[in-house]
Protein backbone atom coordinates (compact mmCIF):
# COMPACT_ATOMS: atom_id res chain seq x y z
CA UNK A 1 0.00 0.00 0.00
CA UNK A 2 1.39 3.38 -0.94
CA UNK A 3 0.48 6.63 0.81
CA UNK A 4 1.95 8.51 -2.17
CA UNK A 5 -0.96 7.50 -4.36
CA UNK A 6 -4.26 9.34 -4.33
CA UNK A 7 -6.86 7.30 -2.51
CA UNK A 8 -9.40 7.22 -5.36
CA UNK A 9 -9.36 3.41 -5.66
CA UNK A 10 -10.52 0.79 -3.21
CA UNK A 11 -8.03 -2.03 -3.73
CA UNK A 12 -8.01 -5.69 -2.78
CA UNK A 13 -4.94 -6.74 -0.79
CA UNK A 14 -3.40 -8.59 -3.70
CA UNK A 15 -0.40 -7.84 -5.93
CA UNK A 16 0.50 -9.60 -9.15
CA UNK A 17 3.97 -9.92 -10.59
CA UNK A 18 3.31 -11.74 -13.84
CA UNK A 19 0.58 -12.89 -16.18
CA UNK A 20 0.44 -15.69 -18.71
CA UNK A 21 -2.63 -16.69 -20.70
CA UNK A 22 -5.66 -16.89 -18.40
CA UNK A 23 -3.55 -16.80 -15.23
CA UNK A 24 -2.01 -14.18 -12.97
CA UNK A 25 0.82 -14.98 -10.54
CA UNK A 26 1.80 -13.24 -7.32
CA UNK A 27 5.45 -12.69 -6.46
CA UNK A 28 5.13 -15.73 -4.19
CA UNK A 29 4.02 -17.81 -7.17
CA UNK A 30 0.35 -18.15 -6.19
CA UNK A 31 -1.76 -18.66 -9.30
CA UNK A 32 -5.14 -17.01 -9.96
CA UNK A 33 -7.52 -17.71 -12.82
CA UNK A 34 -8.40 -14.31 -14.30
CA UNK A 35 -12.11 -14.09 -15.16
CA UNK A 36 -12.01 -10.28 -15.04
CA UNK A 37 -9.25 -9.51 -17.59
CA UNK A 38 -8.56 -6.19 -15.87
CA UNK A 39 -12.04 -4.97 -16.67
CA UNK A 40 -12.55 -6.69 -19.99
CA UNK A 41 -9.18 -5.49 -21.27
CA UNK A 42 -6.83 -8.48 -21.60
CA UNK A 43 -9.38 -10.40 -23.65
CA UNK A 44 -6.75 -12.56 -25.35
CA UNK A 45 -5.10 -13.40 -22.03
CA UNK A 46 -1.89 -12.07 -20.55
CA UNK A 47 1.31 -11.90 -22.61
CA UNK A 48 -0.34 -13.28 -25.74
CA UNK A 49 2.67 -14.28 -27.91
CA UNK A 50 1.40 -12.67 -31.13
CA UNK A 51 0.59 -9.40 -29.35
CA UNK A 52 3.91 -9.41 -27.45
CA UNK A 53 5.78 -9.97 -30.73
CA UNK A 54 3.98 -7.03 -32.38
CA UNK A 55 4.84 -4.71 -29.48
CA UNK A 56 8.46 -5.86 -29.39
CA UNK A 57 8.89 -5.41 -33.15
CA UNK A 58 7.37 -1.92 -33.12
CA UNK A 59 9.37 -0.92 -30.04
CA UNK A 60 12.68 -1.18 -31.90
CA UNK A 61 11.38 0.87 -34.86
CA UNK A 62 9.41 3.88 -33.65
CA UNK A 63 7.60 4.72 -30.42
CA UNK A 64 6.08 8.06 -31.15
CA UNK A 65 5.64 10.73 -33.74
CA UNK A 66 3.09 13.51 -33.63
CA UNK A 67 -0.14 13.38 -35.57
CA UNK A 68 1.49 16.16 -37.60
CA UNK A 69 2.90 13.21 -39.62
CA UNK A 70 1.49 10.09 -41.25
CA UNK A 71 1.57 7.01 -39.00
CA UNK A 72 1.30 3.79 -41.05
CA UNK A 73 0.24 1.40 -38.22
CA UNK A 74 -2.50 3.91 -37.30
CA UNK A 75 -3.78 4.16 -40.89
CA UNK A 76 -3.75 0.37 -41.19
CA UNK A 77 -5.72 -0.13 -37.96
CA UNK A 78 -8.27 2.47 -39.08
CA UNK A 79 -8.68 0.77 -42.46
CA UNK A 80 -9.20 -2.61 -40.82
CA UNK A 81 -11.70 -1.31 -38.25
CA UNK A 82 -13.62 0.47 -41.00
CA UNK A 83 -13.58 -2.62 -43.23
CA UNK A 84 -14.92 -4.75 -40.38
CA UNK A 85 -17.67 -2.34 -39.28
CA UNK A 86 -20.36 0.14 -40.31
CA UNK A 87 -17.77 2.92 -40.08
CA UNK A 88 -15.80 4.78 -42.73
CA UNK A 89 -13.44 6.76 -40.52
CA UNK A 90 -11.69 6.38 -37.17
CA UNK A 91 -10.16 8.79 -34.67
CA UNK A 92 -7.78 7.21 -32.16
CA UNK A 93 -7.39 8.23 -28.53
CA UNK A 94 -6.17 6.61 -25.34
CA UNK A 95 -9.14 5.50 -23.26
CA UNK A 96 -12.82 4.75 -23.25
CA UNK A 97 -13.78 8.07 -21.71
CA UNK A 98 -11.91 9.91 -24.45
CA UNK A 99 -13.56 7.77 -27.12
CA UNK A 100 -16.96 8.77 -25.71
CA UNK A 101 -15.97 12.45 -25.35
CA UNK A 102 -14.98 12.36 -28.99
CA UNK A 103 -18.30 10.72 -29.89
CA UNK A 104 -20.22 13.47 -28.06
CA UNK A 105 -18.13 16.24 -29.62
CA UNK A 106 -18.54 14.68 -33.06
CA UNK A 107 -22.33 14.55 -32.64
CA UNK A 108 -22.34 18.28 -31.84
CA UNK A 109 -20.05 19.39 -34.64
CA UNK A 110 -22.00 17.22 -37.09
CA UNK A 111 -25.31 18.80 -36.05
CA UNK A 112 -23.66 22.22 -36.34
CA UNK A 113 -22.30 21.39 -39.79
CA UNK A 114 -25.80 20.59 -41.04
CA UNK A 115 -27.20 23.84 -39.67
CA UNK A 116 -28.62 22.49 -36.42
CA UNK A 117 -26.21 24.07 -33.92
CA UNK A 118 -29.04 24.27 -31.38
CA UNK A 119 -28.92 20.48 -31.12
CA UNK A 120 -26.33 19.82 -28.40
CA UNK A 121 -28.03 17.51 -25.88
CA UNK A 122 -27.88 13.71 -25.71
CA UNK A 123 -30.31 11.14 -24.36
CA UNK A 124 -28.65 8.51 -22.17
CA UNK A 125 -29.96 5.60 -20.09
CA UNK A 126 -30.30 4.74 -16.42
CA UNK A 127 -27.31 2.79 -15.03
CA UNK A 128 -25.19 3.90 -17.97
CA UNK A 129 -21.43 4.23 -17.73
CA UNK A 130 -19.45 6.21 -20.26
CA UNK A 131 -16.29 7.19 -18.35
CA UNK A 132 -15.08 9.62 -15.70
CA UNK A 133 -14.46 12.93 -17.48
CA UNK A 134 -16.77 15.83 -16.62
CA UNK A 135 -18.95 15.21 -19.68
CA UNK A 136 -19.02 11.43 -19.42
CA UNK A 137 -19.97 11.37 -15.70
CA UNK A 138 -22.85 13.66 -16.63
CA UNK A 139 -23.74 11.31 -19.49
CA UNK A 140 -23.72 8.35 -17.09
CA UNK A 141 -25.84 10.37 -14.71
CA UNK A 142 -24.94 8.29 -11.67
CA UNK A 143 -25.10 10.16 -8.36
CA UNK A 144 -22.10 8.27 -6.95
CA UNK A 145 -19.90 9.48 -9.82
CA UNK A 146 -21.22 13.08 -9.80
CA UNK A 147 -21.08 13.62 -6.04
CA UNK A 148 -18.67 16.45 -5.20
CA UNK A 149 -18.07 17.25 -8.88
CA UNK A 150 -21.19 19.32 -9.43
CA UNK A 151 -22.42 21.24 -11.27
CA UNK A 152 -22.87 18.42 -13.77
CA UNK A 153 -22.42 19.27 -17.46
CA UNK A 154 -25.97 20.17 -18.44
CA UNK A 155 -26.31 18.32 -21.73
CA UNK A 156 -27.95 15.01 -20.93
CA UNK A 157 -31.50 13.71 -20.49
CA UNK A 158 -31.78 10.26 -19.00
CA UNK A 159 -34.48 7.63 -19.44
CA UNK A 160 -34.97 3.97 -18.54
CA UNK A 161 -33.08 1.45 -20.69
CA UNK A 162 -35.59 -0.39 -22.86
CA UNK A 163 -38.32 2.28 -22.67
CA UNK A 164 -38.75 3.41 -26.26
CA UNK A 165 -41.78 5.61 -25.49
CA UNK A 166 -39.86 7.48 -22.78
CA UNK A 167 -36.96 7.89 -25.19
CA UNK A 168 -39.25 9.33 -27.87
CA UNK A 169 -40.80 11.66 -25.31
CA UNK A 170 -37.36 12.90 -24.21
CA UNK A 171 -36.43 14.07 -27.73
CA UNK A 172 -36.56 17.84 -27.94
CA UNK A 173 -35.48 20.65 -30.28
CA UNK A 174 -32.04 20.60 -28.65
CA UNK A 175 -31.45 16.85 -28.85
CA UNK A 176 -28.43 15.90 -30.95
CA UNK A 177 -27.87 12.25 -30.13
CA UNK A 178 -28.85 9.08 -28.32
CA UNK A 179 -26.04 7.25 -26.52
CA UNK A 180 -26.36 3.62 -25.41
CA UNK A 181 -24.23 0.66 -24.40
CA UNK A 182 -25.59 -2.34 -26.38
CA UNK A 183 -24.72 -4.31 -23.24
CA UNK A 184 -24.41 -2.23 -20.07
CA UNK A 185 -21.28 -3.31 -18.20
CA UNK A 186 -20.64 -1.36 -14.99
CA UNK A 187 -24.39 -0.82 -14.59
CA UNK A 188 -25.00 -4.54 -13.99
CA UNK A 189 -24.54 -6.47 -17.26
CA UNK A 190 -27.86 -5.53 -18.87
CA UNK A 191 -28.11 -6.28 -22.59
CA UNK A 192 -30.37 -3.88 -24.46
CA UNK A 193 -32.88 -5.93 -26.46
CA UNK A 194 -32.46 -6.18 -30.22
CA UNK A 195 -35.90 -4.57 -30.65
CA UNK A 196 -34.89 -1.64 -28.44
CA UNK A 197 -31.69 -0.97 -30.42
CA UNK A 198 -33.69 -1.22 -33.66
CA UNK A 199 -36.24 1.19 -32.18
CA UNK A 200 -33.51 3.68 -31.28
CA UNK A 201 -32.19 3.51 -34.85
CA UNK A 202 -35.66 4.31 -36.17
CA UNK A 203 -36.12 7.20 -33.70
CA UNK A 204 -32.77 8.70 -34.70
CA UNK A 205 -33.61 8.41 -38.39
CA UNK A 206 -37.01 10.07 -37.89
CA UNK A 207 -35.72 12.94 -35.74
CA UNK A 208 -32.34 13.55 -37.42
CA UNK A 209 -30.39 12.41 -34.36
CA UNK A 210 -27.02 10.71 -34.20
CA UNK A 211 -27.04 7.19 -32.76
CA UNK A 212 -23.95 6.52 -30.63
CA UNK A 213 -23.07 3.07 -29.36
CA UNK A 214 -20.66 2.78 -26.46
CA UNK A 215 -18.90 -0.53 -27.15
CA UNK A 216 -15.93 0.28 -24.94
CA UNK A 217 -16.64 -2.85 -22.88
CA UNK A 218 -18.88 -5.03 -25.10
CA UNK A 219 -16.93 -4.52 -28.34
CA UNK A 220 -13.96 -6.31 -29.94
CA UNK A 221 -15.35 -9.85 -29.68
CA UNK A 222 -16.61 -9.82 -26.09
CA UNK A 223 -20.16 -10.88 -27.03
CA UNK A 224 -19.13 -13.40 -29.69
CA UNK A 225 -19.53 -10.92 -32.54
CA UNK A 226 -16.84 -8.36 -33.35
CA UNK A 227 -19.29 -5.68 -32.16
CA UNK A 228 -22.25 -6.32 -29.85
CA UNK A 229 -24.69 -4.33 -32.01
CA UNK A 230 -24.26 -6.87 -34.83
CA UNK A 231 -26.60 -9.16 -32.85
CA UNK A 232 -29.39 -6.62 -33.32
CA UNK A 233 -28.66 -6.05 -37.01
CA UNK A 234 -28.50 -2.27 -36.60
CA UNK A 235 -25.59 0.09 -37.07
CA UNK A 236 -24.91 3.29 -35.15
CA UNK A 237 -23.57 6.51 -36.67
CA UNK A 238 -20.75 6.70 -34.14
CA UNK A 239 -19.17 4.09 -31.88
CA UNK A 240 -16.65 4.25 -29.03
CA UNK A 241 -14.13 1.45 -28.46
CA UNK A 242 -11.28 0.99 -26.02
CA UNK A 243 -10.74 -1.72 -23.40
CA UNK A 244 -9.98 -4.90 -25.37
CA UNK A 245 -8.68 -3.10 -28.48
CA UNK A 246 -5.14 -3.00 -27.04
CA UNK A 247 -5.28 -6.12 -24.83
CA UNK A 248 -3.74 -3.98 -22.07
CA UNK A 249 -1.92 -1.37 -24.11
CA UNK A 250 -3.91 1.88 -23.71
CA UNK A 251 -5.88 2.74 -26.85
CA UNK A 252 -9.32 4.07 -27.61
CA UNK A 253 -11.13 4.73 -30.87
CA UNK A 254 -14.09 6.70 -32.12
CA UNK A 255 -15.58 5.26 -35.32
CA UNK A 256 -18.10 7.02 -37.54
CA UNK A 257 -19.80 6.89 -40.88
CA UNK A 258 -18.52 9.23 -43.55
CA UNK A 259 -21.33 11.81 -43.50
CA UNK A 260 -20.90 12.32 -39.75
CA UNK A 261 -17.10 12.05 -39.67
CA UNK A 262 -16.84 14.68 -42.41
CA UNK A 263 -17.70 17.33 -39.82
CA UNK A 264 -14.22 16.89 -38.32
CA UNK A 265 -11.73 19.10 -40.16
CA UNK A 266 -8.07 19.90 -39.43
CA UNK A 267 -7.96 21.46 -35.97
CA UNK A 268 -11.40 20.28 -34.80
CA UNK A 269 -10.12 17.78 -32.27
CA UNK A 270 -6.90 16.07 -31.27
CA UNK A 271 -4.80 14.25 -28.71
CA UNK A 272 -1.03 13.97 -28.36
CA UNK A 273 -0.87 10.23 -27.83
CA UNK A 274 -3.89 9.09 -29.83
CA UNK A 275 -2.94 6.61 -32.55
CA UNK A 276 0.55 6.13 -31.15
CA UNK A 277 2.60 3.61 -33.22
CA UNK A 278 3.05 1.21 -30.29
CA UNK A 279 -0.67 1.23 -29.44
CA UNK A 280 -1.69 0.75 -33.07
CA UNK A 281 0.82 -2.04 -33.68
CA UNK A 282 -0.77 -3.83 -30.71
CA UNK A 283 -4.29 -3.04 -31.94
CA UNK A 284 -3.46 -4.58 -35.31
CA UNK A 285 -2.13 -7.71 -33.60
CA UNK A 286 -5.34 -7.96 -31.55
CA UNK A 287 -7.39 -7.76 -34.74
CA UNK A 288 -5.22 -10.47 -36.33
CA UNK A 289 -6.35 -12.82 -33.58
CA UNK A 290 -9.99 -11.75 -33.17
CA UNK A 291 -10.67 -11.64 -36.92
CA UNK A 292 -9.01 -15.01 -37.58
CA UNK A 293 -11.30 -17.61 -39.12
CA UNK A 294 -13.44 -19.30 -36.47
CA UNK A 295 -12.33 -17.21 -33.47
CA UNK A 296 -15.69 -15.54 -32.82
CA UNK A 297 -17.62 -18.79 -33.47
CA UNK A 298 -15.49 -20.37 -30.77
CA UNK A 299 -16.32 -17.51 -28.39
CA UNK A 300 -20.02 -18.24 -28.95
CA UNK A 301 -19.51 -21.95 -28.25
CA UNK A 302 -17.52 -21.18 -25.11
CA UNK A 303 -20.23 -18.77 -24.01
CA UNK A 304 -22.94 -21.39 -24.39
CA UNK A 305 -20.94 -23.92 -22.38
CA UNK A 306 -20.03 -21.50 -19.58
CA UNK A 307 -23.52 -19.96 -19.36
CA UNK A 308 -25.12 -23.38 -19.05
CA UNK A 309 -22.73 -24.38 -16.26
CA UNK A 310 -23.27 -21.10 -14.39
CA UNK A 311 -27.06 -21.47 -14.64
CA UNK A 312 -26.83 -25.03 -13.29
CA UNK A 313 -24.63 -23.98 -10.35
CA UNK A 314 -27.26 -21.40 -9.31
CA UNK A 315 -29.06 -24.53 -8.01
CA UNK A 316 -31.57 -23.67 -5.32
CA UNK A 317 -30.77 -19.99 -6.00
CA UNK A 318 -29.77 -19.21 -2.41
CA UNK A 319 -26.50 -17.56 -3.54
CA UNK A 320 -27.36 -16.22 -6.99
CA UNK A 321 -30.62 -16.33 -8.86
CA UNK A 322 -29.38 -16.75 -12.40
CA UNK A 323 -27.07 -15.53 -15.12
CA UNK A 324 -27.56 -12.91 -17.82
CA UNK A 325 -25.47 -11.24 -20.47
CA UNK A 326 -24.21 -11.94 -23.93
CA UNK A 327 -21.23 -13.94 -25.14
CA UNK A 328 -18.52 -13.86 -22.51
CA UNK A 329 -19.91 -10.78 -20.80
CA UNK A 330 -21.87 -12.45 -18.00
CA UNK A 331 -23.51 -11.33 -14.78
CA UNK A 332 -24.61 -13.47 -11.86
CA UNK A 333 -27.63 -11.92 -10.14
CA UNK A 334 -26.54 -12.29 -6.53
CA UNK A 335 -28.89 -13.03 -3.65
CA UNK A 336 -26.09 -12.72 -1.08
CA UNK A 337 -23.98 -9.51 -1.20
CA UNK A 338 -21.98 -9.70 -4.45
CA UNK A 339 -18.77 -8.73 -2.64
CA UNK A 340 -19.15 -11.79 -0.35
CA UNK A 341 -19.35 -14.14 -3.32
CA UNK A 342 -16.52 -12.30 -5.07
CA UNK A 343 -14.35 -12.65 -1.94
CA UNK A 344 -15.14 -16.34 -1.56
CA UNK A 345 -14.29 -16.89 -5.22
CA UNK A 346 -11.03 -14.98 -4.79
CA UNK A 347 -10.19 -17.24 -1.84
CA UNK A 348 -10.62 -20.09 -4.34
CA UNK A 349 -8.09 -18.33 -6.60
CA UNK A 350 -10.53 -17.14 -9.24
CA UNK A 351 -10.84 -13.42 -10.02
CA UNK A 352 -14.10 -11.89 -11.17
CA UNK A 353 -15.61 -8.39 -10.93
CA UNK A 354 -18.51 -6.69 -9.21
CA UNK A 355 -21.10 -4.66 -11.10
CA UNK A 356 -23.94 -2.40 -9.94
CA UNK A 357 -27.19 -3.95 -8.80
CA UNK A 358 -25.49 -6.66 -6.67
CA UNK A 359 -24.08 -8.47 -9.67
CA UNK A 360 -20.96 -10.61 -9.93
CA UNK A 361 -19.54 -9.97 -13.39
CA UNK A 362 -17.43 -12.42 -15.38
CA UNK A 363 -15.32 -11.22 -18.31
CA UNK A 364 -13.04 -14.20 -18.93
CA UNK A 365 -10.46 -14.31 -21.69
CA UNK A 366 -12.19 -14.96 -25.03
CA UNK A 367 -9.85 -17.88 -25.72
CA UNK A 368 -10.42 -19.95 -22.56
CA UNK A 369 -10.72 -23.70 -22.97
CA UNK A 370 -12.78 -26.36 -21.24
CA UNK A 371 -10.20 -26.85 -18.51
CA UNK A 372 -10.50 -23.21 -17.43
CA UNK A 373 -14.31 -23.38 -17.50
CA UNK A 374 -14.14 -26.50 -15.29
CA UNK A 375 -11.70 -24.84 -12.92
CA UNK A 376 -13.79 -21.66 -12.60
CA UNK A 377 -17.06 -23.54 -12.13
CA UNK A 378 -15.65 -25.91 -9.52
CA UNK A 379 -14.24 -22.91 -7.63
CA UNK A 380 -17.61 -21.17 -7.92
CA UNK A 381 -19.39 -24.22 -6.45
CA UNK A 382 -17.04 -24.20 -3.46
CA UNK A 383 -17.43 -20.43 -3.08
CA UNK A 384 -21.22 -20.76 -3.16
CA UNK A 385 -21.11 -23.48 -0.47
CA UNK A 386 -18.91 -21.16 1.59
CA UNK A 387 -21.20 -18.11 1.45
CA UNK A 388 -24.41 -20.15 1.74
CA UNK A 389 -23.41 -21.44 5.18
C1 LIG B 1 -14.74 1.36 -19.09
C2 LIG B 1 -15.80 2.03 -19.85
C3 LIG B 1 -15.69 3.37 -20.25
C4 LIG B 1 -14.53 4.25 -19.82
O1 LIG B 1 -13.31 3.76 -20.25
P1 LIG B 1 -11.96 4.32 -19.59
O2 LIG B 1 -10.89 3.69 -20.43
O3 LIG B 1 -11.96 3.84 -18.16
O4 LIG B 1 -11.99 5.78 -19.68
C5 LIG B 1 -16.68 3.91 -21.04
N1 LIG B 1 -17.74 3.18 -21.41
C6 LIG B 1 -17.90 1.90 -21.03
C7 LIG B 1 -19.09 1.13 -21.50
C8 LIG B 1 -16.95 1.29 -20.22
O5 LIG B 1 -17.11 0.02 -19.83
Helix content: 25-40%
Note the overall shape. Answer: globular
Q: Roughly how many Å apart are the termini?
A: 32 Å
Helix/strand-derived category reads alpha/beta
Supply the CATH superfamily name of the domain at 50-290: Type I PLP-dependent aspartate aminotransferase-like (Major domain)
Rg for CA atoms? 21 Å
CATH architecture label name of the domain at 50-290: 3-Layer(aba) Sandwich
Which fold name is given in CATH as the topology of the domain at 50-290? Aspartate Aminotransferase, domain 2
User: What ions, cofactors and ligands are bound?
Assistant: pyridoxal-5'-phosphate
Number of strands: 17
Spatial strand sequence of the major β-sheet: 4-12-11-10-7-5-6
CATH class of the domain at 50-290: Alpha Beta
In the predicted model, the low-confidence regions spanning at least 5 consecutive residues are: none
* Beta-strand content bin: 15-25%
Question: Can you count the helices?
Answer: 13
Walk me through the structure:
By secondary structure, the protein is α/β, with parallel strands linked by helices. It has a domain at 50-290: Aspartate Aminotransferase, domain 2, CATH 3.40.640.10. 37% of the residues lie in helices and 18% in strands. The chain contains 13 helices and 17 strands. Strands 4-12-11-10-7-5-6 form a seven-stranded mixed beta sheet, sandwiched between helices. The longest helix is centred in the C-terminal third of the chain and has 19 residues, at 295-313. The radius of gyration is 21 Å and the shape is globular. It starts with 17 loop residues before the first strand and ends with a helix. 49% of the residues are buried. The structure holds pyridoxal-5'-phosphate.
